[in-house]
């Protein structure tokens, strides 16, 4: 039985998570919190269990735990009537937020594919949630030239506040839609996905230029910014270039700049932005063993992750919590609200906060180093920073601040990258979409 927002999710015991990985019995039925609490003596109030993990899991076990917890977010923090997924959720107490984001929904749709591959729920339940979501997006969600509003009301689907029609967030959503089309091989899902993709007017988003606009609002028209520098927008360009209708020219791939930066002897393409910019496109698109005229982007993300670790360690005299097994800063919540921070060079008001998804999203790039951080977090901050949905979005052991939220996009990047490292499932599935492979050929990608 699919449940909507506000339904207490089942919190699995560590024994279940560490013993029954990959088995349908792990989530053989969708249970409410009351049944679990009755069995385990809990209070039914949500949040973490207040106990430490029994024994050290292997890396694979830990990644399974992280993935399963993230799936709990995408399943329970969705409106089962329309499939929209919350942008963020409070993991303790009552959450009355009605804000959904299309980026969170895009990660969540991909999470449904992973859940099917791992037997977390029945294929029938997962396919029905996909169909519900795609049908709503096609027939009821507000759009402009096929693009979706960044934020929507999770109950009505209406535009939230003054939210913009977002090009990059539409791309993230579409990546989730195309992952479902490729994985489930279902005629209804395929039809809905095709119609959503085909109606997007990518050329309109160029706004008369050679690079894509960040977005548009009905009040002010196009935003005064463009995707004109290296960023997470590689997926946006490939989706637009390979689109079945209203595509943009392949020359737009060459129109955005690729500045380089050198840090402690490491040189890489960057826009000097937070670490997630090296991760998001590569959660779906397999850039391994490929290069265009400018770079091997997978190797570029490896170098960027190495540089980021060195950058965090360079701050240890100022923030002694940053160590070899405790580092990672990317856009996240902070004690002062959501911030874009990281480096190198230093971005934002860095204060010793640790963002778990920073290293989780880079697992395929630097597995030993990033998994050491994740193991350290799980072993030593379980009672502080672990929830039924995985790690909190951010926390600071120096000031004792712990975020009250988990964020869909941050749980999502960790889930997808963990699965890619373990099985390459998302990469292998998404690359079945000919629009992407055709676009990569069109812009000059070749095997290395």
What features would you describe in this structure?
With 448 residues, the protein is mainly alpha-helical. The protein has one domain: Glycoside hydrolase 144 (GH144) (Glycosyltransferase). It has 18 helices and 17 strands. It has helices at 14-19, 33-40, 59-76, 102-118, 123-139, 167-184, 187-198, 202-205, 234-241, 252-255, 280-284, 297-314, 356-360, 367-380, 382-385, 408-423, 425-430, 434-442, and strands at residues 88-90, 99-101, 143-144, 147-148, 151-153, 165-166, 215-217, 221-222, 260-263, 266-269, 290-291, 386-387, 390-391, 395-396, 401-402, 405-407, 446-447. The strands form eight sheets. The protein has a three-stranded antiparallel beta sheet. Strand 14 (395-396) and strand 15 (401-402) form a beta hairpin.
